[in-house]
Amino acid sequence: MGNIKSCLFDLDGVIVDTAKYHYKAWKRLCNELGFDLTIDENENLKGISRAESLDILLKKGNVRLSDEKREMYMERKNNWYLEYVEQMSPGEALPGSLDFLKACKDAGYKVALGSSSKNALRILEKIDVLHLFDAVIDGTKVSKGKPDPQTFTLGAEATKAHPSECVVFEDSIAGIEAGIAGGMYTVGVGDPETLERANLVISGFENVGLEIFEKF
Ligand code: BG6
Ligand code: MG
Question: What residues sit around ligand 2, an ion, with C-beta below 5 angstroms?
Fold first, then answer.
């Protein structure tokens, strides 16, 4: 179908609803540091690495920390986040996302993960989908986070596809920009206004089939 060979999926907020757990954990950290984090402000943290997210928040709260304290707060946030992750089950995959992944595989497309998270493998195991991926590019494998295209460029290379043969599925502004910068097609998963730069925006994977590739 069309020109596509590889499907590159973000994880948090695309396959599974962990975006809400990241938000809860960051908000708790901000509150501890004496300021708040709204759901709108959180939109700009989506897709961004843990260290960069903390820097954005410290700037917003006008808080200065030593490198040592930054590490400590990042670990604290991650421990809270992992408490949520440990309670996850396969039922927590977003509606239709696993069926869509399986349909991609069955139709012969390569399937790769392109996530900024260093916890991605743990989450894929928790929801029992690791076996569906031909390649996993996560936060442990990249030196430049989204919106840099490196995450998806490595995904394209790992699945032996040219960027123009790849479609990126993303819920974050940073991730859509990464896909565009990498020369790939982009499908936004979420709000069309927020993700206006994507080639196509879907609200989720329910009732979405491989016909969307015909547009590319
Ligand atoms: C991205 C999330 O997938 O991963 C971000 O959208 C998160 O919110 C980033 O900060 C890094 O995740 P982690 O699990 O390594 O802290
Ligand atoms: Mg995401």
Answer: 10, 12-13, 171-172
